[in-house]
Amino acid sequence: MGEDSNPKLELDDIQSGVLRPRPTPYVATYIAFRIDDRKAGRELMRRVARVVTSADSPTSPLADTWVSVALTYEGFKALGVPQDSLDSFSWEFRQGMAARADELGDTGESAPENWEKPLGTGDVHVVLVAVSPDEGRLEAALEPARQTYRQLSGVEAIWRQNCHALPTETEPFGFRDGISHPAIEGSGVPGSNPKERPLKAGEFVLGYADELGGVQKTVPEVLGRNGTYVVFRKLRQRVAEFRRYLKANANGPEDEELLAAKMMGRWRSGAPLALCPFHDDPALGEDPRRNNDFLFRDDDAAGFKTPAGSHIRRMNPRDAQIAGVARIHRMIRRGTAYGPPLPEGVLEDDGADRGLMFAFVGAHIGRQFEFVQSQWVNDGVFFGAGEDRDPITGSGGGPGAFTAPRRPVRRRIQGIPQFVVTRGGEYCFMPGLRALKWLSDLQT
Ligand code: HEM
Question: What are phi and psi for residue 123, nearest 5 degrees?
Fold first, then answer.
């Protein structure tokens, strides 16, 4: 406890994908591998380690393409990681995402039996993520990598998902994404909210003190140190249904935008209701120095500007009065759109699969990702709203309801359908660079 309470982060050992903000715009691809032969799996680790860069490296061996690699618990087993090492990882990680479906609200359509295979089957062992400014450069960088793993018998690429971030950085519902991210002590990456005190490094990277003074260690220490948990979720977004719902519940186009903003807590431009509650302000929305510079308690305790039930206030209540402490439930997020955008104005579903590849990065799957997903997304008790769910991404049975406080009477909308369906996902661990070497050097 507390032995290294304010250390310098070992950036040369942390994978760049953990801390480095992604370029804009960019394309990304997720490739999942199954390991059928542990020696081949270790060789894969050795080869991948050559192209993974550390958080302090200004350049990548693949030019403009940056690669990160993560493993599931089943992946660690497939590599032959000894049992005492396996047991030293977090309980939720060892269970895997599919086993946690009830807690996460992955029921009905979102239940693991309906997931896109091979997600959640136990076959996904390694997940490689490559990020590049455009498709041409991504494919050019991946081609030699492809040759490499094709030559390795005993390792199979079993799934791939391409995604993209538009220049406007909007997600499929049309809101600017990628705005709010936490400041982390010693990371060198500034946070987006000047009013937020940086979080202890141990909230995001293993081996350092966290907000509660604990230091997570694995057996041996090198395996976990400078690594972090990564949660991938493929989330289908029902864009046409979202648009139709707004239309049916608003009085004209301007009110539709206001309702959408109340549900999100930001206008589609990214401008926060906290700073411009009545009208959109696109210049504010795209200004990274101002668009996250706010708190809730003193300015808007009752949620007249940003409803307590809106997506961003649920996901990060900041200093608002809630049951619990917001700081221990923070996360690094990377959301990247997949599928063709639904052309503007279209209200009928075209049947295409589109949504977000959501990625969580943090040192505590349980009290960060799972807590937020179960208590803050799918419940409203923490701020006194009973069973209300997140109006954007709430799940887990039956239609939802949402309240926007207003004078003289609040605005309450009911019958909110589920706009987001889980298509699958995995709990992974993204090891440090020395740990990748440790994995590739495993014997027997
Ligand atoms: C398809 C589903 C989702 C969509 C469309 C979505 C969209 C957004 C958008 C537009 C923002 C505001 C921009 C920003 O601050 O970066 C945001 C913020 C955020 N979202 Fe989501 N989100 C989704 C699912 C989730 C899930 C499942 C979680 C966590 C379990 C989550 C956690 C967060 C957090 C922590 C923030 C930042 C809040 C803040 O600090 O103000 N989101 N999301």
Answer: -85, -20
How many other CB atoms are there within 10 angstroms of residue 5's CB atom? 14
Atom of ligand 1 at shortest range from CA of 171: 5
What is the spatial distance between Cα 269 and Cα 177, in angstroms, rounded to a whole number?
9
Quote the pLDDT of residue 382: 84
The CA distance from 87 to 437, in Å, is 20
Ligand 1-lining residues (CB < 6 angstroms): 171, 173, 175, 177-180, 235, 237, 264, 266, 311-312, 315-316, 331, 333, 355-356, 358, 369, 372-373, 377, 392-393, 420
Rg of the chain (C-alpha set): 21
Instruction: Provide the β-strand partners of residue 164.
Output: 27, 337
d(CA 180, CA 54): 23
What is the spatial distance between Cα 403 and Cα 308, in angstroms, rounded to a whole number? 8
Which residue, judged by its Cα, is nearest atom 13 of ligand 1? 177
Strand stretches in 308-438, DSSP E: 332-338, 355-362, 400-404, 411-416, 420-430
For a pocket test of ligand 1, which of 233, 393, 420 has the largest count of ligand atoms closer than 8 A to its C-beta? 393
Question: Nearest CA to 175 among 393, 371, 417, 406?
Answer: 393
Average confidence (pLDDT) per 10 residues, the chain, 444 residues: 62 92 86 97 95 90 91 98 98 98 95 98 97 93 83 94 90 96 90 94 97 97 98 98 96 96 98 97 97 97 96 95 90 94 95 96 97 90 86 84 91 93 98 98 92
Q: Does the bond joining 307 to the residue before it have cis omega, within 30 degrees of 0? A: no
Bridge partners, residue 28, by sequence: 131, 163
Nearest CA owner, ligand 1 atom 38: 312
Helices assigned H by DSSP within 169-310: 221-224, 239-249, 253-264, 282-285, 297-300
Number of H helices, E strands in the chain: 15, 10
